[in-house]
Every structure is written in C-alpha cells, then in structure tokens.
Amino acid sequence: MSLRKKFTGTGIAIVTPFDTDGKINWDSYKKLIEFWIEGKVEYLVVLGTTGESATVHGEEKQQVFSFIAETVADRLPLIAGIGGNDTHEVIEGFKTFDLKGYDAILSVAPYYNKPNQEGLFRHYKALSDATPLPIMMYNVPSRTGQNITADTQLRIARECLNVFATKEASGNFEQIHQIIKNKPADFMVISGDDPATLPMIAAGAEGLVSVVANAYPKDYAEMVRLCLAGKFIEAQKLHYKYTDIISSMFAEGSPSGVKAYLSEMGLCQNTFRLPVWPVSPTHLARIKELMKGVR
Q1: Residue 272's closest CA among 48, 53, 78?
Q2: Which of 258, 238, 234 is nearest to 246 (CA)?
Q3: Contact, 271 vs 18, CB < 8 A?
Q4: 86: how many CB neighbours lie within 10 A of its CB?
Q5: Annotated active-site positions, please?
Q6: Can you tell me the distance from the alpha carbon of 221 to that of 285, in angstroms, rounded to the nearest whole number?
Q7: pLDDT tens digits for 32-91?
Q8: How far apart are CA 24 and CA 115, in angstroms?
Q9: Is this prediction's pTM over 0.90?
Q10: Omega prior to 275 cis, within 30 of 0
Q11: Alpha helices (runs of H) in the chain, residue ranges in sequence order
Q12: Domain total of the chain
C-alpha cells in the first residue's frame, strides 16, 4: 500500500492512559485501541503531543511503541512520534527504537531553541538522511514557538526525499494555500488542527491527524471521508456537530480536555503526568453538558 493510500483520511494523535500512580495503564490502552479501530479511522499516531510524549522516555517509550504495534497487529497503519529540539538526539532515537510494525515517523519541529529557517531546513535534512522510515514533519508554532514557513516547507518537500508529508497546524491559510499550490505532486498536506480540517481539505489537504477522534472516531472519520469525496454539505453537519466540543477540548489545554471526555466515557482515567493537569471542575461540568448533545 502506498504512503498516500495509508495516510489519506483520519489519523488519531492517541492519548497515553495512566493510572493514578502515574504508571501506564495497559488495559485501558487495549480498550482504547479497539474503540479506535471500531471507529474506522485510517491510522494511529503514537506518542505525539496528545500522548504526553514529553514525559514518556527511554525504555518506557519503547514499551509503548511495541505494545501498540503488537495490539494493533497490522490492522491499521502506525506512525511513531520521535522528535525533539536536539537533532543528534532525534537521530539517535531513529537508531535505537525498534519500530517494527510502524509505517512512518512523525517528527515535530524543534521547540524552545527557535532556530531560523535555515536551521529548520537542515534539521529535517539531517533527519531525512538518517531515518529508517518515511517522515511526516509537524509544524505547530503555537507549541514550538517557531513557524516553518511555506518556503521552508516547500524546500523540505523538494530536497528531503524521505519527508513525505507535513502535518500543518499553523492555522495560517495564506501559508497553507501556498504549500498546497506549490508542493510536489507526491507530497501530502495533512491538517493538524481539528476545526480547520474541512476548509483545509476543500483547499486540497488529504486528511487529518486528530485529537477529537480519540473520543469521537466514527463521526469525525466519516466527516473527513465526506470532505475527501467532495460532499461538503453532508460533512458540514458533522463538522458543526463537534465545533463546541473541539473548543472545549482545548480551552484548558490538551490532552487535559480530551482525556476528560474519555474518562466520562469510561475508556481511561482522567490522570496525567505533571505538568499536565485535569481540567477544572467548572469546565468538566461544561464538558458533561456538551456530551449530552451528541449521544
């Protein structure tokens, strides 16, 4: 199966379920995986931002990668989240982690350092030259502090042959339009922002890596499929059904919001590793009200 076929549609940036003592809850992981597969999403992204990757390290990270691959058992394509702000360390991760069962790597733009555009290009060029799997770059300036401009993303698309896609979450439609208009034909543009997905697909994007689909996989994957089929009137109904829910998922930080939903659904506990913390009681009450409207 081609990369385009594997990663057209809806991927989920999956959560990592924890017990109250902070240990990973493997039983909840199994329950969630079956829920997502039954929801007919196209692929899963493991240990991205929503998976609290910043607090999962070393051997534990390998345990997660292996557990997901063994549990999914080739029923869905998988992407491993391996990124950071030290290029050498990311490349060492490429060499160290056993990525059997994975189809690609998601690698976020370097954060905190705020490299210039040449530094961003050279980071992805180094990753492209060293990677064991195709790479989806991830541009999320609201978290990293630095935007990968359209010109730089296009340069990466043309010159970094193992970077096959961008997960684009800048929210800047002028930039998005320039990337889609000028990209190589085989380079994929994927929405990294749930509420922007419908207009991004209308502009030429090929799908979404979603947070909301953790909790509502069936409807949101169907919304994306309708968009990809050009059925935007039908897709709008599902898009607007979840507009307020999506806003609530990010109002007090993510993954705090989406785990509140999953906890209310009985799929995992509402627990995190610091510094991430649950939503406030007031906001949780709001979430419970919103959930009543989509049952």
Answers
A1: 53
A2: 258
A3: yes
A4: 12
A5: 138, 167
A6: 27
A7: 999 999 999 999 999 999 999 999 999 999 999 999 999 999 999 999 999 999 999 999
A8: 34
A9: yes
A10: yes
A11: 3-7, 26-38, 58-72, 87-96, 117-130, 141-144, 150-159, 173-182, 197-203, 217-228, 232-241, 243-250, 256-264, 281-292
A12: 1
φ and ψ at residue 34, rounded to 5 degrees: -65, -40
Q: Per 3-state DSSP, what percentage of the chain is helix, strand, and coil (rounded to 5)?
A: 50, 15, 35
The predicted-structure confidence for 231-274, as pLDDT tens digits, reads as follows 999 999 999 999 999 999 999 999 999 999 999 999 999 999 99
Structural domain includes residue 271: no
d(CA 99, CA 108): 18
For residue 87, the cross-strand partners are none
Say which CATH number the domain at 215 has. 3.20.20.70
Instruction: For residue 42, give its domain range.
Output: 3-231
Task: Scan for tokens 């017990």, then name that residue.
Answer: 19
Residue 274 is assigned to a structural domain of this protein: no
d(CA 93, CA 113): 19
pLDDT in tens, 76-88: 999 999 999 999 9
- Please tell me whether residue 43 adopts helix, strand or coil conformation: strand
* Residue 7 included in any domain: yes
CA distance 47 to 15: 8
Take residue 174 and report the two structure tokens written for it: 């002028």
Segment (H or E) for 12 = strand 9-13
105 in Cβ contact with 71 (< 8 Å): no
Please tell me the distance from the alpha carbon of residue 220 to that of residue 239, in angstroms, as a whole number.
8
- Select from 285, 248, 291, 255 the least CA-distant residue to 270: 255
162 domain residue, yes or no: yes
Omega before 110 cis (within 30°)?
no
